[in-house]
Amino acid sequence: MEVFREIQVLLLDNWLILLLTLFFTKLLFNKYGQGLNSIPGPFLAGFSDFWRFLCTTFSTAHEVHIELHRKTNSQFVRIGPRTISISDTTLIPTIYGTHSAFTKSDYYNLSMMPLDGRYTPSLFTAVDERYHTSIKRPIATAYSMTTIIEFEPLVDSTSALLMSRLDGFAASGVSFDFGVWLQMYAFDVIGEILFSQKLGFLESGTDVAGIMADIRGKISYAACVGQIPFLDKILTKNPLFLKIVPTHPIVTFTLERMRERATSMAYGAGRKRDFLTRCIEAQARYPDIVTDRMIILYNGDNVAAGSDTTGIALRTIFYYLLKTPACLRRVVDEIDHADKLGQLSSFVTWHESTRLPYLQACIKEALRIHPVVGLIIERCVPKGGIVLGGHYLPENTVVGMNPWVTSRDEGVYGADADTFRPERWLEATQEQLIAMERANLTFGYGKRACIGKNISMLEICKVVPQLLRHYEVRYFEDFVSDSNSDACISCPSCGQTRSGQFGEDGLCGKMASKCTFEKGLGGLS
């Protein structure tokens, strides 16, 4: 007993030294005890996930990952104690394929949004594959392109509203942030598809209910804190937080729109087969799975993910077309030629857009060179571990590929992979096209690929040619401003110009341009 008392006294007198010893022992174990020390990477990254937390917090993760793979000349880079970034695109089917044994990591738990004080995994956040399959099956057909095409009139009505707002800007010369309006357009389209009503963004020209800011905050939180997932249990997953914020604002916004739609249906108004209607139909077939709570989650995911990703994609497409005038001229000529031949409807349809090969090449190239996702798409190594690329990876090691890295693979896209060159998609052989499509992880890959991809592509493929068909967009090289992100809107009647933001958000905060936005000769009256 005396010995135990002496040990207790010793520990109490030296508790700080003991804690420091345990702390540094843990760091050393992280670095050298995971069986991953042979994989190259930043020295400090092996000790703690705090290294990648800093990379993500300062919005440079995608650039750092590209540089690391090139600097180490390795397809495997260690970016955390148990986290490996992989660039070998031939392994994409192994890690993300339909029959892959790899599962989503704890990172995805951070994207769950509370409803009435409880968290429920959704299609995006579900980690358990059986659960994901069970909640996806009842609603999968609602996301098929065959179904999505039925929503074209809803997209067209929103495009008409966007063009009416752009007509006003072009006529008055008032400055505006084009990127923000593209994102507001994406929000209103989602509203039409989900609830048969625009959400009011284009009409008001404002961030309705602050939902855009809420989504941006949610994404930033998940991206940063997701690098050290256990922090989320302390921050938003603790009981105190759930008492303060029992329901996330994005879920509240979605629920309000659903109630408005339900009211209109109850009074016999607007009986369109929108996404909500299809959810209700699925509930009748699968009442035990498609509960009221699950319907809210289905729609909440669409509101949160569908608008922001599409908005970024639209910004990217216009940015790179403006950066490469030859590409802009060629795609406009292709659209104008098809228009003169009577091959385009008053609002360009999905099928008409797919028959414009250079436009499709520009869209693919923009999504390739500036993917929406700038972090590795995390997966956990299955039980028993696995050998990949000559490296043994223990079970539960987090591996993943960053779309920014895979989309710049020179072995797949050529020595000019860092250059925006749509022609590569037209010049490639069938074998090269397969490899290029596989390496482009903008919408993920395999069984957990973005389920809303078809919605996003429908919007993009319709609105981009529609705007380029009716408006002239070009650089305003002579414009002088102290800001690097100024744009000009030129009034076609008087030529007066005013400065304004182009909308660098979603373009890494570094990409901006000086342009004019004029109503063309073929513009709507």
Please describe the topology of this protein.
Elements: H1 2-13, H2 15-32, H3 50-57, H4 61-72, E1 76-80, E2 83-86, H5 92-96, E3 103-104, H6 129-136, H7 145-148, H8 152-172, H9 178-195, H10 201-204, H11 211-225, H12 230-235, H13 239-244, H14 249-266, H15 275-285, H16 292-323, H17 325-340, H18 350-354, H19 357-369, E4 377-380, E5 386-388, E6 391-393, E7 398-401, H20 403-406, H21 410-413, H22 424-427, H23 430-439, H24 453-470, E8 471-475, E9 486-490, E10 497-501, E11 515-519
Parallel strand pairs: 2-7
Antiparallel strand pairs: 1-2, 3-4, 4-7, 5-6, 8-11, 9-10
Helix pairs in contact: 3-11, 8-9, 8-24, 9-16, 14-16, 15-16, 16-19, 16-24
Transmembrane segments: 12-29
Binding site for heme: 450
Cofactor: heme
What does this structure look like?
This is Cytochrome P450. Belongs to the cytochrome P450 family. The chain is an alpha+beta fold. Helix content is about 50%, strand content about 10%. It is built from 24 helices and eleven strands. The strands form four sheets. The chain has a five-stranded mixed sheet. A two-stranded antiparallel sheet has the order 5-6. Strands 8-11 form a two-stranded antiparallel ribbon. Strand 5 and strand 6 form a beta hairpin. Helix 9 (about 180-195) packs antiparallel against helix 16 (about 290-325) and helix 15 packs antiparallel against helix 16 (about 290-325). The protein is globular and about 95 Å long. The N and C termini lie far apart (about 95 Å).
